[in-house]
Fold this protein.
Amino acid sequence: MSRKAKVESYIRYQTRTSDGKKYATFCPSERRHGGKDLYLGIAIDDNEGIFFNRKSGYFRFTVEGGRSELNHDEAEYIKLIQQREVMESAKPLILDFRDAWFLEHVMETSGIKKMLEKVFDAEDKDTLLSLIAFKILDTNANCYAQRWFDGSYAHYLYPDAKLY
């Protein structure tokens, strides 16, 4: 007579090589939770059981207690840590100044910019002007507009542009 070993619930961690982040999944015991795995998201702090995913945001999860919300101070602290990590990992920005500045100067002095701002909606003008600059100054396909925009002075000229 063989008996199956009792399987306890646990949290499985896996580090992806593509982004280096640690992801977590809750693996429940079959009898206790029906055996369905629950995706927790990015492991922010393994020891404290703090996770992040798009659907739930930041939250705490333990095998014993399940899911619980973070209090306001904990959530703010976690966001500050995330922002610091992003800033530390960011590469220095090398900006191509001359071409976008020159085109902006030409559109400003010739009155083209003022005409475009009158014709198009105020909230879309940065997107329109940055796309015009991209098409004039670069020969790549539109799918590369965001990459060009991030490395160009147009990033500062048109801060509300939505090229994604």
Notes: The chain has a mean pLDDT of 82.
